[in-house]
Amino acid sequence: MNKDITEYQALIFDCDGVILNSNKIKTQAFYDVANVYGHEPAQALKAYHVQNGGISRYAKFEYFIADILKKTLDKMELQQLLDNFAYEVKKALMTCEVADGLDLLRKKTRYAKWFIVSGGDQGELIEVFAARGLDSYFDGGIFGSPDDKDAILANELKNNNITQPALFLGDSKYDYQAAQTAGIDFTFLTDWTEVRDWQSWINENNLKKCRNLTDLAHL
Question: Does the reported pTM lie above 0.85?
Answer without folding.
Answer: yes
